[in-house]
Design brief:
The protein is of the alpha/beta class. It has one domain (2-123): NAD(P)-binding Rossmann-like Domain (Rossmann fold), CATH 3.40.50. 33% of the residues lie in helices and 19% in strands. It contains five helices and six strands. A six-stranded parallel beta sheet has the order 3-2-1-4-5-6, with helices on both faces. Strand 4 (55-58), helix 3 and strand 5 form a beta-alpha-beta unit. The radius of gyration is 14 Å and the shape is globular. 25% of the residues are buried.
């Protein structure tokens, strides 16, 4: 299973750490301008197509969420997309047709604590 995390600030790094340590995901890729030693990283959107991820977590600047969500919708089929809160910085028209996506108002670790019914199975491929 391949997971791409868009953004490596405090929330993006937390997502990556939880995926690696708690869920034992090995193929974690970080989209960031930063140089990251702990994970495979890249800074070009074209690389996402080469990776061909199963899951994408959008955890970058809120103003960028809509752009990346539309990019993923237009370029990928059947990937699961998680968008960190807040979803957008203002009201925007959004129609997702081909990829399931979710957004959450609590930190990822707490999400597992309170609503683990399908999420852990989802990330373990079940």
């Amino acid at each position: 299973m391949k997971v791409v995390v868009l953004g490596y600030g405090s929330i993006g790094s937390r997502h990556a750490r939880i995926l690696k340590n708690n869920l034992k995901i090995k193929d974690i890729f970080i989209f960031s301008k930063q140089k990251i030693k702990k994970y495979k990283s890249f800074n070009s959107l074209a690389e996402i197509k080469k990776i061909n991820p199963n899951y994408v977590i959008i955890a970058n600047n809120t103003r960028s969420h809509f752009f990346y969500l539309k990019y993923l919708e237009n370029n990928f089929k059947n990937i699961v997309i998680l968008v960190e809160k807040p979803l957008f910085h203002r009201r925007l028209p959004l129609r997702i047709k081909t990829n399931p996506f979710s957004f959450f108002s609590i930190v990822f670790k707490q999400f597992f604590s309170f609503q683990s019914f399908n999420t852990i199975n989802l990330f373990k491929g079940g």
